[in-house]
Specification:
The complex is a heterodimer.
Chain A: E1 2-12, E2 17-26, E3 30-34, H1 41-48, E4 56-61, E5 64-65, H2 70-74, E6 77-81, H3 92-99, H4 108-118, H5 131-144, E7 149-153, H6 161-174, E8 181-186, H7 189-195, E9 198-203, E10 206-212, H8 213-218, E11 220-225, H9 227-234, E12 238-244, E13 247-253, E14 264-266, H10 270-284
Chain B: H1 2-12, H2 16-25, H3 37-56, H4 59-65, H5 70-103, H6 114-135, H7 143-166, H8 168-174, H9 178-208
């Protein structure tokens, strides 16, 4: 069952257009929402949640229309916007005391349990928490009101590798019971290689693909060869390519690939797919 | 809605601004003064400082993430400021009573009487109806809203003080018999309440259009 489905979300700004964004996420899975800076990840999340007004489109969460049931559904969502700092000079205890009143399902025992587990000191000010601690604190808040969908915007940005790994492990444990799902936007693709089940890739405000991680990677091939081979009609089939004195390497869709002599074929990483798409864009500029 | 109001008083407004109305109210003890300056200090100090704190604490982003209606965010905000204004008026009233029992002479400018407080209510109604709708056009830029609303409040206070000093007919009404004074007070309270309702309606309309 889809816990989240987005259908043809549109939002037009003067210099940016979110075009027909559609994807869905099933219960019990982690979806990585990837794209370079400015691709439209945060705009999509904010449009989904009615923080910015979408021009058109529909969002369903837990089978219900989001705009019609916004308050009820927000109680089911654990939200985390990575770079935001709220009431930085206020103690954790006080911020929690305010937040918990908004959630009828709030469970103090669960909160205390997670704070102990994550070592969150209630007497510290928010600004005194490290980036990793802040992320864990936000997770503890979301978990204590029994959220079933976690929408996390760049939760691992700014974390050191150990803290990132720690957080990814928590994400994986969260979805283990098959009841919770995570939509997780990032441009740090190595995180997703570790824990995502699905990948939704946004580029210039448009969804390029939304599929299981393996299917997504299988859609593309990295091909390498000499510059002469590039000029035999291959260039047109490449999404983008890099050339140097030894030849070229480029990204192409698997459906466009035909076996040719002398071409080396490799499976791309998520990062390579993102880099080549960004390169395609800069080639047009 | 109650939770948002709790958030305003527990997180958004610094406790200093609960003490400040008492300190400002004590200015009522100055003998022979322009007493419209007392409520104006709320516009000069409390309101801009509180709005600056909303911005620096990312209060808008915090509030919008909670499971609440946008209209309730506006309602709680306006209500919390109105409660502070009423507290400011209450403190001023207390010190005004002390002033009258201490000095027992008329003031050179507006006297501390029922009509004065009636007009203070009108001044705050005017201040609110400019401040909040202008602020909620963006929900974070407060500079222009604070300046324009404060200038309007100063203009109103200046007119009231000048009229009382230089217009005999006006002075006879506001500083004469208690009857007209009480009517002005009652009318001021009614205008303050109606103004607050209108302020809320216009502000919500603006805020609904804002992309956070």
């Amino acid at each position: 069952m889809a816990i989240l489905s987005i259908d043809k979300l549109n939002k037009r700004y003067e210099k940016f257009h979110l075009k027909d964004v559609s994807f869905s996420l099933d219960k019990g899975y982690i979806m990585g929402f990837i794209g370079v800076n400015g691709a439209g990840k945060t705009t999509t999340l904010k449009s989904m949640l009615n923080m910015v007004h979408a021009d058109s489109g529909a969002v369903r969460i837990l089978g219900k229309d989001y705009t019609q049931n916004e308050i009820e559904l927000k109680k089911e969502i654990g939200l985390m916007f990575g770079d935001m700092q709220y009431y930085a000079k206020t103690r954790v205890r006080v911020v929690t005391d305010v937040i918990k009143r908004f959630y009828p399902n709030w469970d103090d025992a669960v909160y205390d349990d997670y704070c102990k587990k994550f070592n969150i000191d209630q007497e510290k000010k928010i600004s005194e928490l490290s980036q990793g601690m802040k992320a864990k604190y936000n997770l503890a808040l979301a978990l204590s009101h029994n959220a079933s969908l976690f929408i996390l915007d760049e939760p691992t940005t700014g974390l050191d590798p150990a803290a990132r790994d720690d957080l990814l492990e928590i994400f994986q444990k969260l979805v283990e019971d098959g009841e919770k799902s995570i939509l997780f936007s990032t441009h740090i693709t190595s995180d997703l290689e570790k824990c995502a089940d699905y990948i939704t890739y946004i580029h210039e405000g448009e969804i390029v693909a939304s599929a299981t991680k393996d299917d997504f990677i299988d859609t593309y091939k990295i091909v390498k060869g000499s510059e002469d081979q590039l000029e035999t009609g291959l260039r047109k089939k490449l999404i983008a390519c890099k050339t140097n004195q030894f030849g070229f390497s480029g990204l192409m869709k698997t459906v466009d690939y035909e076996e040719r002599d002398g071409l080396t074929v490799e499976e791309p990483s998520l990062e390579e797919i993102m880099i080549f798409y960004a390169k395609k864009e800069s080639a047009h500029v | 809605m109650y939770n948002l109001l709790y958030k305003e008083f527990r997180l958004a407004i610094h406790p200093f601004y609960y003490v400040l109305p008492v300190l400002i109210g004590a200015l009522m003890l100055i003998p022979q003064w322009i007493f419209f300056l007392v409520p104006l200090y709320f516009c000069f100090i409390s309101a801009p400082q509180i709005f600056a704190l909303y911005k620096s604490n990312n209060d808008l982003e915090f509030s919008i993430m909670m499971p609440v209606r946008k209209s309730d965010i506006v309602k709680a905000r306006i209500l919390s400021i109105i409660i502070l204004e009423l507290f400011q008026i209450a403190c001023s009233l207390l010190f005004a009573l002390i002033h009258r029992s201490l000095y027992k002479i008329d003031n050179f400018a507006f006297d501390l009487n029922a009509a004065y407080f009636g007009l203070v209510f009108v001044m705050f109604a005017l201040y609110n109806i400019i401040l909040f709708p202008m602020f909620y056009k963006t929900a974070f830029q407060f500079g222009a809203a604070v300046i324009v609303s404060t200038v309007a409040a100063i203009g109103f206070a200046f007119a009231a003080e000048m009229l009382v000093m230089f217009n005999e007919r006006f002075r006879n009404v506001v500083e004469g018999k208690p009857g007209p004074q009480v009517i002005i007070l009652a009318a001021g309270i009614v205008l303050f309440v109606l103004g607050a309702m209108l302020t809320y309606k216009i502000s919500v309309k603006s805020f609904e259009k804002v992309d956070v």
